[in-house]
Amino acid sequence: MTEIVKSITTPIRLEYVYRAGRATSRFLRGLAEGRILGQRCPVTGKVYVPPRGASPTHGVPTEEEVEVSDKGTVTTFCIVRIPSEGLSIKPPFVAAHILLDGADIPFFALVHECPFEEVRMGMRVQAVWVPKEELAPTFESIRYFKPLNEPDAPFDSYQEHL
Amino acid sequence: MRDVAIVSFAQVPNVRRELDRNEVEMLMPVVTEAIEASGIGRKEIDFTVSGSCDYIAGQPFAFVSGIDAVGPWPPINESHVEMDGAWALYEAWVKIQTGQADSALVYAFGKSSMGDITEVLTLQLDPYYLAPLWPDAVSLAALQARVLLDRGHATERAMAEVAARSRRSAKANPNAQLRGDFEIEKLLAEPYLVSPLRKHDCPPITDGAAAIVLAAGDLAKKKCRRPAWIRGIDHRIESHALGARNLARSRSTEIAAEKAGAFAGSFDVAELHAPFTHQELILRDALRLDPKLSVNPSGGALSANALMVAGLIRLGEAARRIHAGEARRALAHATSGPCLQQNLVCVMEG
User: Fold this and answer.
1) From A85, B139, B333, B337, which residue has the greatest number of CB atoms within 10 Å?
2) What's the domain count of chain B?
């Protein structure tokens, strides 16, 4: 009897050395100092965090470096309850887009230190950093964002960034 | 057919490893340089198309972030090919032929240094019978060279001469990566890398980026003193089953050349995309080139071979000779896939 081959498994693995580039390297080194560094588009004045070196609307270098606040506003969020492969965080957790004060593009981060049902659009939050001696050129220097005891930001102030 | 010309060309200096800049940071200056040299305003360009491959960066949708270098706002008419930029240029040429555009920006980028490029290239092979065996790109080229040698179509000396000539020519090209004077005897005394290929028979690993602006008819005449008019352009592909091909001959190049009108007259210069020395010998045959013709005065892919970029650079280098008044009729060729699987031929006139 001939067995029909219905599928084959051909393992593939490639390794890469990722290079962040000039602008993103500046940003990563900033995190190691407990600072969040963006770059400003010379045409529109918009500040991009993390910066990639180019104004994504005008194709010109964003050479002016701008330090933005580690406080910001939740523009949108998602409560993740389903685990997925390769995820280092245990669900449930809140993944949010946070528009940092002084930035023009939201930043992806976790929100903790409050019940999930209290997380909302417009909520004011602040970064919780790892202890100073653990700061490094990585996103993991920011553990998560916690709620601030401030009134919610008005919808108008972030609706452009949704 | 509409008259379409290459009106400008720019490239970054080709390097072994770009440690500092990401792809967008590499692209921005060349895109800006090509647009400014074209004399056409950035916002007046009707169509934008890029050539790159996400496997080179190891990031899905790397080509999407590449568009940051262009400034696509307000929204632009844009496309992408997961191929060398030479094929992006072909798409732009077709777009202009349809009448939907009068001008186009074509760009390409590739930072081969971030992965193991000979293994990355394995993944372009047939995924059932060939890729699982992991033949690397140099070994496949070596099989092709072996066929050529066994049939008496080439000698190791003739191959070394291609390498020495290319790298000598590259001395005049400030953007080349590998250049210099090499003695044939010394090259032939080197050990094999993958028999019958020695190191000099293989291209360098290169990071690079390039951009070209195309314009149609009156616009090209208005903006460019000596436009490089595309008189014919064609590309053909052969089977991906290497065993089903005659590796000693490039049928796809022959057909593309015929269709592009390459045999209708002589050339002042040819830029061939031959990453391996023996491949130049195959292409010279397929294109029926005069042995006295200046081939790859830029140094060719043996002097700088940024994947997804080196083919577009051949078109740009050929056009540049016409822009400068150094050539009246030029031939450009680009290749893709293992062992010259797919080939594009372009005939340009001043």
Assistant:
1) B333
2) 2
Contact B71 A60 (CB under 8 A): yes
Contacts across the A-B interface (CB distance below 8 Å)? 86
Q: Give the minimum alpha-carbon distance from A131 to chain B in angstroms, rounded to a whole number.
A: 29
Closest CA to B212 of B236, B235, B234, B230: B230
Q: Does residue A119 lie in a domain region?
A: yes
Question: Looking at the domain assignment, is residue A13 inside a domain?
Answer: no
In B, minimum Cα distance to A20 occurs at: B22
- B142 and B98 within one domain: no
Torsion on CA atoms A73, A78, A83, A87, rounded to nearest 10: -30
Query: Which ipTM value was assigned to this complex?
Result: 0.88
Residue B33 domain boundaries: 4-115+205-225
How many structural domains does chain A have?
2
Alpha-carbon distance B244 to B246, whole Å? 7
Give yes or no for a contact between B299 and B321, defined as CB atoms under 8 angstroms apart: no
Q: Give the count of beta carbons closer than 10 Å to the beta carbon of residue B247.
A: 23
Q: Is A1 among the domain residues? A: no
Domain that holds residue A81: 69-162
CA–CA gap between residue A59 and residue B68 (Å, rounded): 6
Q: Are residues B123 and B97 in the same domain?
A: no
Distance from A118 to chain B by nearest Cα, in Å?
Answer: 35
From first to last of the 350 residues of chain B, give the pLDDT tens digit: 999 999 999 999 999 999 999 999 999 999 999 999 999 999 999 999 999 999 998 988 888 889 999 999 999 999 999 999 999 999 999 999 999 999 999 999 999 999 999 899 999 999 988 999 999 999 999 999 999 999 999 999 999 999 999 999 999 999 999 999 999 999 999 999 999 999 999 999 999 999 999 999 999 999 999 999 999 999 999 999 999 999 999 999 999 999 999 999 999 999 999 999 999 999 999 999 999 999 999 999 999 999 999 999 999 999 999 999 999 999 999 999 999 999 999 999 99
Q: Is the CB of residue A110 less than 8 Å from the CB of residue A144?
A: yes
Q: Is the Cβ pair B24, A52 closer than 8 Å?
A: yes
Residue at A128 is within a domain: yes
Task: Specify which residues B78 forms β-bridges with.
Answer: B48
Q: Which residues of B touch A17 (CB under 8 A)?
A: 113-115
Cβ within 8 Å, pair B68-A59? yes
Whether A47 and A94 share a structural domain? no
